[in-house]
Each structure stands twice: as structure tokens, then as C-alpha cells.
# Entry
Amino acid sequence: MNIGRAAKETGLSVKTIRYYEDIGLIEADRAENGYRDFGDRQIGQLQMLAQARHLGFGLEECRRLLALNDDPTRASRDVRALASRNLDAVRAKIRQLRQMEAQLERLIDECHGDDAPDCAILDTMSARAKT
# Structure
């Protein structure tokens, strides 16, 4: 199947698929005319990449997941360890986002939000930028 159809099949953009090929995550076959030709194996890899990226795995982690998926002698503990590290990273991001949320709520509460030019949000952000 051509790259356009592979994109529709996997939910990835053509640009993303080309990028994954450029960095060596996947390797498309080539048709006689030189165009990319994606078979069941590549579509499966692309679907796995789409899901892994959705779950927050980085590109190198995706590379490792693909390698583990292709290895019939893999140990599930290796996959679990990779997923556990990713979960730790996701939880750290969630903590950061909650801190950002709380900070934004405080800034918004401090702002009068009226027609006056004084703005506690800008004052606070510019003061922090100067320190």
C-alpha cells in the first residue's frame, strides 16, 4: 500500500511516516516504480508507533519497543521496565502540570481583570523574569 493509504490506515500523517522512515524506525519496501510500499508488517509497526507515542513514549523508547516486539526471545520484564519508566515520566509531567495550574489560578485570582492597566499577572511574571 502507498504512503497515503498507510497514513489513513494508521492515523499518522504522511510527514510523520516519512520522518519515522528517515530516522530508521521503520523501513518501507519499494515498488518497481520506486514508491514506498507498506505491507502488513510496516502497518503493524506504524500502528504500534502511533499507540506508543500516544502513551508518551519517546522515539528511542519506541525504537526499543519495536525491537522487543520483533524479538521472540524477549523477556516481558524488559517491556514492563520500559513501560514503568514511561509511567514515572508521565506522573512527573502531571505533577508539573498541576503546579502550573495552581500558579495560574493564583495569578488569575490576583488580577482585577478590569479596565485599569495594572495587571498582577504581568507584574508577577515580569518580576520573576528579572530575578
In short: The radius of gyration is 23 Å. Helices lie at 3-10, 14-22, 40-54, 59-70, 76-110, 120-130.
